[in-house]
Amino acid sequence: NAGVTQTPKFQVLKTGQSMTLQCAQDMNHEYMSWYRQDPGMGLRLIHYSVGAGITDQGEVPNGYNVSRSTTEDFPLRLLSAAPSQTSVYFCASSYSSRVNTEAFFGQGTRLTVV
Amino acid sequence: KQEVTQIPAALSVPEGENLVLNCSFTDSAIYNLQWFRQDPGKGLTSLLLIQSSQREQTSGRLNASLDKSSGRSTLYIAASQPGDSATYLCAVRSRSNYQLIWGAGTKLIIKP
User: Fold this and answer.
1) Quick check: B101 contacting A, CB < 8 Å?
2) What pLDDT does residue A98 have?
3) Does B14 contact chain A (CB < 8 Å)?
4) How many whole angstroms separate alpha carbon A40 and alpha carbon A19?
5) What is the CA radius of gyration of chain A?
6) What's the alpha-carbon Rg for chain B, to the nearest Å?
């Protein structure tokens, strides 16, 4: 079982560049989300989706866009990269956000913006 | 606003010891609490999920407890091994907005 797959694993960007972090899950999960993890802090929610065609902002959405055209895929776009976006990014999925279900995570994308 | 705290931030113990990791949260209105393990440079692996109606969950050498009224959870690791070295994270799913709220983690080192 593939579970949640994130690509790429590592990325270095120059300030001002744009890129898309890919996330795919093969578990037919409704709920998908993106987090960033910074040293000494808990994971912070960037954006989330409760189903295809539906997205919403989390705690730290500025500088990021998402879309959910299919159940399986939930890409995260950095519009104009800034050094403050240097972080480790995790994609997660769960069957539903509204019942007591387990969250599954991808392996993470380590992004450095120079 | 829900806040999750994990103390200590780091812990180093000799192999073979039993140990307890702590997680506290400020709002008892939660759906569940989940413990995760994170290895350096790797993703998050779910260890145990405790529903709000449960008091504890066990998996192998791991036992997690939940006391909603006091806003506390503990992760008990029996007979620790060097392979248990990792960062352990707890997260609660808030009833107010269904989101996972995270602690910053406890970095555990088991010395051979």
Assistant:
1) yes
2) 63
3) no
4) 26
5) 13
6) 13
Buried b (16+ CB within 10 A) or exposed e, A88-103: bbbbbbbbebeebbeb
Query: By the 8 A CB rule, do A49 and A33 touch?
Result: yes
- Compute the CA torsion angle A73, B42, B104, B52 (nearest 10 deg): 60
In A, minimum Cα distance to B104 occurs at: A42
pLDDT digits (tens, 9 = 90+) for A26-38: 999 999 999 999 9
Cis amide prior to A39 (ω within 30 degrees): no
Three-state DSSP class for residue A10: strand
In this structure, are residues B105 and B75 in contact, taking their beta carbons and an 8 Å threshold? no
The reply to whether B105 touches chain A by the CB within 8 Å rule is yes
Q: Token pair for residue A89? A: 């990014």
Q: What are the Cα distances from residue A76, in Å, to A57, A71, B37, B53, B70?
A: 12, 15, 24, 35, 37
* In the predicted structure, residue A64 carries a pLDDT above the cut 90: yes
Closest CA relative to residue A104, chosen from A4, A24, A22, A37: A4
Q: Where are the beta strands (DSSP E) in chain B?
A: 4-5, 10-14, 19-25, 30-38, 44-51, 56-59, 62-67, 72-77, 86-94, 100-102, 106-111
